[in-house]
Amino acid sequence: MKKIFAVASFTAVLLASCTPKTSTPTAATGPATSTAEQIAQGKTIFENSCGRCHKLPDPTSHNSVQWVGIMNSMAPKAKLTDEQHQWVYDYIVSVKK
Length: 97
Ligand code: HEC
Prior knowledge:
Oligomer: single chain
Bound molecules: heme C
Structural class: mainly alpha
Number of helices: 4
């Protein structure tokens, strides 16, 4: 059941990302790009993948712009897919806010 929900919500995100943003929800509480579920996955991936070669970095040690560059060099090292790269980035940035 949980898996079906995950697939369904992921599909919804894919569809949403292809749709022009005509009506923006007024109460935008969460991060813009990822669902809470994707951020939770990003956290798990971060904890499992990013402490292998060095100490697990502190998400608050760099700003969101610096993290773009760091993730661009670290995601291939951690062998992340593009999706995982995005989720880990969104998790890191979510910690700062
Ligand atoms: C295969 C080994 C490896 C993995 C996996 C890895 N790193 Fe690194 N990381 C390094 C090395 C080596 C350095 C130092 C040299 C460099 O900056 O390229 C580094 C440096 C860093 C730095 C310091 C960069 C700076 O400019 O201060 C951060 C932050 C970082 N990694 C984050 C991450 C994150 C986040 C992940 C998970 C997506 C990750 N690393 C996964 C090898 C790895």
